[in-house]
Amino acid sequence: VIHKWNAKEVHASVNMNGDAFHADRRRPHHPIRWMPETKKEIDEMFSSVTYDKGGCIVRMLEHIMTEKTFQYGIRKYLEK
To answer: What is the pTM (predicted TM-score) of this model?
Structure first.
């Protein structure tokens, strides 16, 4: 990755202003926590919206907490 591109900001910008949040408006969605009951529901459980929004939330947390604090928290979590 070329550092001048600032991949983190490009990812956040593209996903927050584009795919993830706009796609969420177009399709029916389910609560964050639910248990699928059919094979169809399992297949629909994860989509590009799920993954793109997840990445956006992680970037938002990192921005709010500062990169240093966020990385420290991730390391501590993974050490468990």
So the answer is: 0.54
